[in-house]
Amino acid sequence: MFEGSGVALVTPFKNGKIDEAALLRLIEEQIAGGTRLLVPCGTTGESATLSHEEHDRIIEITVAAAKKRVKVLAGAGSNSTEEAIRLTRHAQRAGADGTLHICPYYNRPTQEGLYRHFEAIAKACEFPLVLYNIPGRTGVNLLPKTIARLAKLDGILGIKEASASLVQVSEILESCPPDFTVLSGEDALTFPMLALGAKGAISVTANLLPKLCAEMFHAAEQENWKRARQIHFELAPMNRVLFIETNPAPVKTALALMKKISPELRLPLAPLAPESSAELERVLKSYSLL
């Protein structure tokens, strides 16, 4: 259901508020560029600093703008199970195609706690769910054995995997049913994950290079691994520079330099250091984006 080139959408701000016009323009550019999956209100969308009202509004805007042309996987994760259920129910009412759920952060639950958290959401909502494993952000690693347990539950369709471990990716693919979808959550590892059997990605880089990201997936689907590998290396400098500092500061700065959004971030994120900004600008010029 959720396959191909996906984008972890930024949330544009203007004078402290959501810049709805800029968000709509970004969505249209993504669809025109071949992006198949829009993912609002994730890490890249600064979900941790959005009010509930803002979070709901962004989901509503994205669903309405997509007009069923592409899938919308709405960020609905929380370290509170009840809050994750509320966010999921809203995304369902808004018309999203599914919800993305990060592992609970700060609480640092056990594997059993993680299982029960996602099980509770799946049972309460009866709506397509995609898990999101990113230990570097959450402090906990959703292990393959737990993922395999969760894959047996109705409604849990896949995982955005960002553990940075290809061994773990391989174990997930080995232990889960063939219809359980693995999506790359690490731009630098998308190509090798596709080679292992992942079906798509939720990409930061796609905010800037949607056509090239989509072309890599098309090549992989056609089993043109030579071209897919070539695009992997073409994307490598961008994949690196967009994590020169904490995401989404680099990608929002890049979009601002391209005159697409304001560079506004919400505290505690801060503007890029001058040397990081200079390196980002150099890379953008190498891709003829400036």
List the helices and strands and how they pair.
Blueprint: E1 4-8, E2 13-14, E3 17-18, H1 20-32, E4 37-39, H2 52-66, E5 71-75, H3 81-94, E6 98-102, H4 111-125, E7 129-133, H5 135-138, H6 144-150, E8 156-161, H7 166-175, E9 181-184, H8 190-196, E10 200-203, H9 210-221, H10 225-241, H11 249-257, H12 274-286
Parallel strand pairs: 1-4, 1-10, 4-5, 5-6, 6-7, 7-8, 8-9, 9-10
Antiparallel strand pairs: 2-3
Question: What labels describe this entry?
Answer:
290 residues; two-stranded antiparallel ribbon; 8-stranded parallel beta barrel; alpha/beta; single chain
Q: Number of helical runs?
A: 12
Q: Helicity range of the residues? A: 40-55%
Mean pLDDT, all residues? 97
Order of helices and strands: EEEHEHEHEHEHHEHEHEHHHH
Rg result? 18 Å
Q: Tell me the number of strands.
A: 10
Instruction: Enumerate the spans where pLDDT stays under 50 for 5 or more consecutive residues.
Output: none
Q: What characterizes the major β-sheet?
A: 8 strands, parallel, barrel
* Spatial arrangement of strands, main beta sheet: 1-4-5-6-7-8-9-10
Spatial shape = globular
Strand percent estimate: 5-15%
- Could you give the distance between the termini? 35 Å
